[in-house]
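Just wondering, does anyone understand these tokens?
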Amino acid sequence: MHYPLVSLMTPVKDRAVMMQDTVNSMLHQTYFNTEIILVESDSTDNTWKACENYAYLWDRISAYQIEEEGQYPAYQKCVEVAKGEIGAFVWSDDTISPEYLEKMVPLLTEDVGFVYCPARVGDEVLYKLHNYKMTIPSSNYLSMIFNKGNIPVSPGCAIFRIKDMAIWDMDAPEDIREYPECGLDLALFILIARKYPFVAYHPEPMAQFTAHEGSITIANYEECKRKYNIVREWLK
């Protein structure tokens, strides 16, 4: 059986303590063929030192520091240095269950663009469709996106092919590029779904998102909703 290398990627800023759970969840995957990429940008705390320590202690962790501020350049760096065939983002305030990759990777077949699962935020479960694994025609999935259905906008609960993730040189609306952390993530799902006949869904909520005042979606909730609507209009 083929076990492709999976690149688990975490852009991080000012989360030296919070990222510990994130890194531990990546290290303790039951799927064995992984690399972990940490990209730190413009932190004011000990985040870079923490990244260096992780890379020193674990051979499969690589740490990079960039001068540009924001998740967008860090995202680009993650994809640029990734060696895996498959990629997954695990945001620095989130975690994934130990069997996340073991259960998701086999569903990424040749005709499937990406695989996603529900995400848990506290006691709430987001993006739950059914109680069974399924492939969804991409046309149906895209219809759910443009009709604001119950589908993810964050790549933190999905896996993709690395070759499909380098989409950020596209001519996005200026309003999106000014704050790309909200908007271009939804564009990633749309553009990849258009390349493949199917996307796949696993019913277990194996991604855990953390709601706190410093999170992008909590701190910029209304702005994120506006940006997602701009992306839907741009790519419809």
